[in-house]
Amino acid sequence: MEEHRTRLIVLGRQGAGKGTQCARLAARLSVPHISTGALFRIEVARGTDLGRRAGAFLDAGALVPDELVIDLVATHLGSTEARAAGYLLDGFPRTLAQGQALFEVLGERAADVAVELHVPTSVVLPRLAARRVCQECGATSTAAPGDPETTICSICGGPVGRRTDDTDEAIQRRLADYDRESGPLLEWLEGRGLLVRVDGVGEPDVVHHRLLDAVRSRVPVIDGALEP
Ligand code: AMP
Fold first, then answer.
1. Which of 44, 93, 164, 215 could be bridged to 98 by S-S, CB 3.0 to 4.6 A?
2. Which residues are catalytic?
3. Structural domains of the chain, with CATH
4. Which is it for the CA torsion 122, 55, 31, 192, positive or negative?
């Protein structure tokens, strides 16, 4: 029987714990974790042409134009091997046009399931203000109250700081963007029977198992290995 690697979309407002949960879920499902935000930050840090074109949008906390994002994803999922490995898309699609492009480029089987990790604004705002990211490896962490602005990454030893797009103004803008842009996308995914909503409030372990259950509700056998 041909092996079917899971193809998963994870949606959620910034600060919903998506990055951390996605990394863990991707490892559990043995599929690559593709985060468009992380990929853009790498392009910016490397000073590539794409990084230069996308950088101003990232700094402003604004959505990068659809064509640039679709190009980025098409590059990463361009080869048959990349698609055969399955994937967890984190932060893409973010708009209806991106969702439609994903299915146009990759066909009907572009996603087995789309999970929305739902967390209310009152919970995400303080989390975003405390969020720190490693400038070297991109790992995210949460600053304890009173922590200095720059510390050292516990994973790679690189410098850790606030994301340039984590100013209060940019945070508000991204939350408003999510509600405006992702609403029609969520409806469209629901219409295709792909959307499962998951409560993102709770202990990380509990949320992880809710996410796994959501995936299992659409992909009963995850790469031949069900969680014990
Ligand atoms: P994230 O790490 O997911 O919060 O993404 C950081 C930034 O990257 C966003 O604020 C946007 O500027 C850009 N970005 C990432 N993914 C997308 C996307 N699917 N569409 C548009 N912009 C994106």
1. 93
2. 18, 94, 131, 163, 174
3. 7-119+167-216 (3.40.50.300)
4. positive
Partner residues linked to 33 by β-bridges: 88
pLDDT in tens, 4-18: 789 999 999 888 889
Ligand 1, from 53, 135, 165, 177: best to mutate by most atoms within 8 Å of Cβ? 165
What does each C-alpha distance from 155 to 30, 38, 113, 137 come to in angstroms?
21, 16, 31, 8
Decide: 57 and 64 in contact? Cβ < 8 Å: yes
Is 227's pLDDT higher than 80? no
Span 132-150, average pLDDT: 78
Q: What is the pTM of this model?
A: 0.84
Strands lying side by side in the sheet with 195-199: 33-35, 87-90, 7-11, 113-118, 195-199
